[in-house]
Design brief:
The protein is of the alpha+beta class and 111 residues long. The protein has a single domain, classed as Nucleic acid-binding proteins (OB fold (Dihydrolipoamide Acetyltransferase, E2P), Beta Barrel), CATH 2.40.50.140. Helices cover 23% and strands 39% of the residues. The chain has a five-stranded mixed β-barrel with strand order 1-2-3-5-4.
Length: 111
């Protein structure tokens, strides 16, 4: 699948993997396993950071999908550098992530 979205949650999993949650353009929350995302050779370190907006290419059968690649549209560099703005954005992302269940669709959250 190919969908535009923004990463609203990123959690380290094991030695080299990450579990990310994206809010896609339809307003659905999609959990993805990013294998070897913490390894330098894969190039996924910067692409799987919080608030990265991009085109996510992944496979999904049931439950959690597997991330194949990310075409980054914006990394929101200014958002990551300003502490106050970053804290407000983190609060908003966590609120959205916690308020939505697995199958919920809320397009207003994406806007």
């Amino acid at each position: 699948m190919r969908q535009k979205g923004i990463i609203i949650k990123a959690v380290d999993y094991g030695e080299s993997d990450k579990i990310i949650t994206i809010l896609n353009e339809h307003g659905a929350k999609v959990p993805l396993m990013a294998r070897r995302a913490k390894k330098v050779k894969t190039g996924l370190q910067a692409q799987t950071q919080l608030f990265v907006y991009g085109l996510f290419i992944y496979n999904q059968w049931r439950g959690m999908g597997t991330l194949n690649s990310v075409d980054v549209i914006s990394q929101h560099y200014k958002l990551q550098m300003d502490l106050y703005v970053s804290s407000y954005a983190s609060l908003a992302a966590e609120t959205i992530e916690r308020s939505m269940d697995e199958g919920d669709i809320a397009p207003y959250n994406y806007q």
